[in-house]
Amino acid sequence: MNRKMVYFLVGRILLLEGGLLLLPLAVSLYYWDGGQIPFLITIALCEGLGLLLCRVFRTDNQLMFAKEGFFVTALAWLSVSVLGALPFILSGEIPNFVDAFFETVSGFTTTGASILRDVEAMSRSMLFWRSFTHWIGGMGVLVLMVAMMPNLPGRTIHVLRAEMPGPTMGKLSPKLKDTAKILYTLYIIMTVLELVLLVAGGMPLFDSAIHAFGTAGTGGFGMKADSLAGYSPYLQWVIAVFMMLFGVNFNLYFLLVLRRFKSAFRSEELWTYLGVILAATALISWNVRPMFDSLGDTLRHAFFQVNTISSTTGFSTVNFDEWPTLSRMILVLLMFLGACAGSTAGGLKVSRAVLLFKTVRREIRHMLHPRAVTSIRFEGKPVDSTTLISVISYFSIYIGLFAFFWFLVSFQPGFDGVSNFSAVAACYNNIGPGLNLVGPSLGYWHYTPFIKLVLAFAMLFGRLEIYPMLITLSPSAWLKK
Amino acid sequence: MKIILVGCGKVGVALIGALVAEGHDMVVIDSRREVLDELTNQFDVMCMEASGADCEALQEAGVDRAELFIAVTGSDELNMLMCFLARRQGAAHTIARIRNPQYNDKSLGFLRQQLDLSMSINPELLTAQEIFHLLKLPAASKVETFSRRSFEMVELRLKEDSPLLGQRLMDLRSRFKAKFLVCMVQRENEVIIPRGDFILHAGDRIGLTADRTELWKLLKATGLAKRQARNVTLLGGSRIAFYLAKMLLSSGTSVTLIDTDRAICHRFSDQLPGIAVYCGDGTQQELLQEAGLLDQNAFVTLTGMDEENILVAYYAKSQKVDQVIAKVNRDEMGRMAEQMGLESVLSPKDVVVNVVLRYARALASSMGSSIENLYQLMDGKAEALEFIVSQEADFTRIPLRELRLKRNVLIGGILRERKAIIPAGDDVILPGDRVVVISGQHRLNALHEILL
User: Fold this and answer.
1) Do residue B26 and residue A174 have CB atoms under 8 angstroms apart?
2) Fewer CB atoms inside 10 A, N or C side of chain B?
């Protein structure tokens, strides 16, 4: 393996993180809230370490294969999270390392699960950095690096493929760099659009930025104890709609920009996604109608909660843990489904679910008609068996790992199975709030440090779609030369 | 520059690698999924699984915004069809690989015109030309081709005893009774575009064009290329051998061919008068002796087997033949042979890649102006610019000697309906002509700027 190149790229990522930290530094300078020194120290560490890595591991052999791609991705995310936790520790706002690491991983992986007992006690700049990690992690640090790095080494596509969610990666333009730039441009435009709509609805600028970052990355860190419950219906609608939009494959937005409306609206995944949202909203509205006064309120809360879960964001307008079992069950199922591939959301992804469903249907048909020849079609094209096998094996490993994490979390004394189950589901699928003891009105602070670390790794596994973390953490990858 | 390429065979992949390295935006179309999967991993390109003759797929690949469309599938007919479709849908320039000799005869010009092809590539013909240049030119010289390869310019250095020295250029033309033109002279790092009264010195590096048929005889007559091969043995009756033998014979070189297949031997002997053909196994030393290998001053191995080509080339080298050239299809083999001491190893793939790369460069540097193509000459100190003469131009139908041109500008060639003209004072420019202008310093953006 080309280790030098891997460490060199990790160094580049750290340099980039140092640059990104300038923004929260500016916020802390503006509010003068005590975050200046911690951010300065972190920036210095990022740049120093980044320069060191880039200097020591400078190499002419820039060849990278799939394995290097996985390694870069996993190591970059780990190191970015460790360094990103420093401001919280240095400022004393989250003094414990495990807690700070959990919070930062939760931020970068756009989970939104928090160990904070009182979020409103945090300083402004720390709140900003916490939400800004959502925004960075949503589209991905490596995508950002590819968009900004002057000359890309060969085969960088492996890095991008390891970071971009979804079963296959489609390029938007011939050059990888341009693809990454297009993605970030769309991302920025949509974030700014939401920001403007929120400010227009009377939300203060700082709050709007926090919530726009949280929505764009489909993260879910808020700044109030009751998340979004205290904001006006208009603001809740805006955020609900944007959560839905950020759960759509970004390639479709690019097709819209290119004015290829037909191909954009032909997407099978999009219609399935929207159909699921509609059905879930209708069912939950019917189920919870006695709890609200008006139809408008019922629809708004149902629609918001469905989108917050299916887009894996994790904001809330009500404590949905108090809802009837049927509604809570629907939400748990949505946690696993997730949103579209190629979006900033987590979960299994709609396209994988559709392919799994079609494969199973075909297998059942084969049992009845052993000689029937059927091909599986998705997005209007036949899907080859390699893709199907990779989807099925991803699903198996996804379920297997889920069971493993659930088992590890059950070491926590005093927690019931539902809480643990929903905690793992919420972290693994990058959602945030779960049910019972980890419901929207509570948090993750009860867990022991060991369980917190387990959940933090569950988030990383979920965000990077298992393989990069799994391969990097397997002993054989390090033992072999 | 946006380039679409269809067909990811050996040449296709080599082209993709070279063009991506130059920084072009590439969309690659092929119908084989496995090939594309590997390509996306290897190169920074966008891959599409489709047929290149599928109009909708071409549209999706953005053919209307493509500067260059390259078709290099295995089928000539498909390549032509795809280029036609691409051109109709808005691709600015098209290149098709057309290797069947049937299309490469007289009909090629007509085909190219009707399909509006910017260039057709015949790998065998190009390789033959490359070998021809290697055989006929002194080591340090270079051949540049312009205008769909209709003009050739040879860059070489004048020796002390050259008969071109000491006379005005306008007198040289009548003395050698050949249509040729000295387009540029590099003298002590300065590039001069010479007028009729210019006198050449020893040590000058000159760029010389002439009518294709006369160029090589002229080089010989003027003593510019003294040590050219006079008798050449070709091993293997491939298509390359056929093209090469034809060129060599017409330049007055004697050619001997060895092949095992009697039918091939007969075809060569029937179609190429003057060639000596031996039927037998080229690896038999006896036969090589009989064919007079030792007396030859050049030996070219062109069989379909790389190993045989390399091995026989070694043997010829050990027998003190002056110049030995081996054709190799697999690059790796070629590199190995070069490391082991064979100087001239040629792969048709590399030749094609170089030709297309040069064309793409010329295209990229002419973008945004009315220049059709722009070629850098003399290490970038001079340029050859290609223009198409518009119907409204006011300098047409006037003899060139009456046109008042700027200093350091010269009309190096006129292409009129596939006919290449090396212009003299009484030639005229007509609307619709392609004109190659050689310019010394200033960048020209339109053809009328050559006038004072």
Assistant:
1) yes
2) C
Please tell me whether residues B7 and B103 are part of one structural domain: yes
Domain at B130, CATH number: 3.30.70.1450
Q: B344 and B254 in one domain?
A: yes
Residues B54 and B94 in one domain: yes
Partners of B27 on chain A (C-beta within 8 Å) are 174
In A, which residues are within 8 Å of B47 by CB distance? 171
Question: Measured between alpha carbons, how far is B369 from B359 in angstroms, rounded to an integer?
Answer: 16
Q: CB contacts < 8 Å between A and B, how many?
A: 31
Burial of A162 (0-12, 13-18, 19+ CB in 10 A): buried
Classify residue B359: in a domain, yes or no: no
CA of B255: how far to CAs of B234, B249, B276, B379, in Å?
Answer: 7, 7, 6, 35
Residue B160 placed within a domain: yes
Q: Which residue has the tokens 């609200």?
A: A292
Q: Is residue B226 part of a domain?
A: no
**pLDDT per position as a tens digit, B282-295:** 778 888 777 776 67
Flag whether pLDDT at A481 surpasses 60. no
Which residue in chain A is spatially nearest to B25 when comparing CA positions?
Answer: A174
Domain count, chain B: 4
Residue of A nearest to B44 (CA): A175
Which pLDDT score, from 0 to 100, does residue B442 have? 67
Residues B99-129: tens digit of each pLDDT: 888 887 777 878 888 888 888 889 998 899 8
Q: Can you spell out the DSSP letters for B286-330?
A: HHHHHTTGGG-SEEEE--S-HHHHHHHHHHHHHTT-SEEEEE-SS
For residues B335 and B410, membership in a common domain is answered with no
Task: Using the 3D structure, point to which of B195, B221, B247 is the last residue of a domain.
Answer: B221
Residues B62 and B91: their CA atoms lie apart, in Å, by 9
Q: Which long-range contacts (CB under 8 A, 24 or more apart) does A82-87 make?
A: A83/A14, A83/A17, A83/A42, A83/A45, A83/A46, A83/A49, A84/A17, A84/A42, A84/A108, A84/A129, A84/A133, A86/A38, A86/A41, A86/A42, A86/A45, A87/A21, A87/A24, A87/A35, A87/A38, A87/A39, A87/A42, A87/A126, A87/A129
CA dist., res. A149 & res. A189, Å (int)? 21
- The token pair at A167 is 């079963």
Domain ends where: B81, B100, B121?
A: B121
Pair (B249, B277) in one structural domain = yes
Verify that B241 and B283 share a domain, yes or no: yes
**pLDDT lower than 50: segments of chain B:** none
* Residue span of the structural domain in which B391 resides: 370-450
Regarding pTM above 0.90, the answer is: no
CATH number at residue B26: 3.40.50.720
Over the stretch A19-74, which tens digit does the pLDDT of each residue have?
A: 999 999 999 999 998 889 999 999 999 999 999 999 998 888 777 888 888 899 99
Express each pLDDT in B189-237 by its tens digit: 788 888 878 888 888 888 888 777 777 777 777 776 666 678 899 999 8
- Which secondary structure element, helix H or strand E, spans residue B265, and what is its range? helix B262-271
**B11 and B116 part of one domain:** yes
DSSP tag of B168: B
Closest Cα of chain A to B21: distance in Å?
A: 10
Which of residues 29 through 68 in chain B touch A, CB cutoff 8 A?
33, 40-47
* pLDDT tens-digit series, residues A118-164: 888 899 999 999 999 999 999 888 888 888 877 776 677 887 777 87
The proportion of chain B whose per-residue pLDDT surpasses 90, expressed as a percent, equals 17
Contact A171 B33 (CB under 8 A): no
- In terms of domains, do B345 and B405 share one? no
pLDDT tens-digit readout, A426-441? 999 999 888 888 888 7
Within-domain flag for B358: no
Token pair recorded at residue A257? 């920009």
